[in-house]
Design brief:
The chain has 285 residues and is α+β, with helices and mostly antiparallel strands. It has 2 domains: 5-148, Fructose-1,6-Bisphosphatase, subunit A, domain 1 (Fructose-1,6-Bisphosphatase, Chain A, domain 1), CATH 3.30.540.10; 163-283, D-Maltodextrin-Binding Protein, domain 2. The chain has helices at residues 5-25, 43-59, 93-97, 168-181, 193-201, 217-230, 265-283, and strands spanning 32-36, 39-42, 64-67, 83-91, 104-111, 114-122, 127-132, 136-141, 147-148, 163-166, 186-188, 207-210, 233-235, 260-263. Strands 3-4-5-6-7-8-9 form a 7-stranded mixed beta sheet, sandwiched between helices.
Length: 285
Amino acid sequence: MKISPDQDLQIRQVIRHCGLQAAQMAAEPFEIFEKGLEDYVTSVDSALDIQLSAAFSDLFPKDGVISEENTQSRQRFCENYARLWCIDPLDGTEDFIHGKHGYAVMAGLLEDYQPVAGWIYAPTQDRMFYGGQDWGLFEAIANYRSVPLAVVKPDPPTSSFCPIVIGYRDQKRFGRAIAQQILEAQFYSVGSFGLKVMEVISGRAGLYLYLNQRVKLWDTTGPLALANAAGLVCCSLEGHPIKFSPDRIDPDTLVHQDSILVGWPDYIDRLRPKLEAAVQSVLQN
């Protein structure tokens, strides 16, 4: 990794500091805005975005920094930076709004359009997950020393065991069709994209399914860097590798053009064709 131990420590400190602020601010009045259809932002997102953007710009002045709430920063994706930091000040905003625990503060590093490192902090657990390619995976609880993260491969899917993480909207739209194709499917969800990926890395689920094509670079860069380092398969519903290159990302919104599956190889191999058939049956009706 081209990140020094001191830089990593500073990254973790600023992310944790912002996450603890979020947990504190969750108990106080805050403003809520709808920036798009069923796409919400709060005054907390905006405040943390400013802090995180400034901190990463100071730490890595030669790199590009893209953050969710700074729309002008999105142009840096097309400015030929070798390294891009993608920051999500509050991943899982709807859970945060409703007083649930499934939100996180995240940062990820793209190097030559490849996700190579990520940091996911869950404020309500005071728990940090981080690592990446050629580095390893680690976790730290509160101020305790970091330890290697336990990557757990779940048992293969059977007629009585097939845990699948899926977002609320995707389950509402596609859940019935998927259940008809995969009778053994057991659905559940948490708010944050990053924490959903951690469910798979930890072995509590075999697969995370994201279908609504609204997920953006700051949602995916850190989590998929960790998923790749854990040996998971990250692919589209059609089985193609997830790409972060400009030809697969909308330049204005930085939305991925592909659906996303993150899972253990035996889950992807066994379930992906059935998932594809289920989704097509819904889209054709």
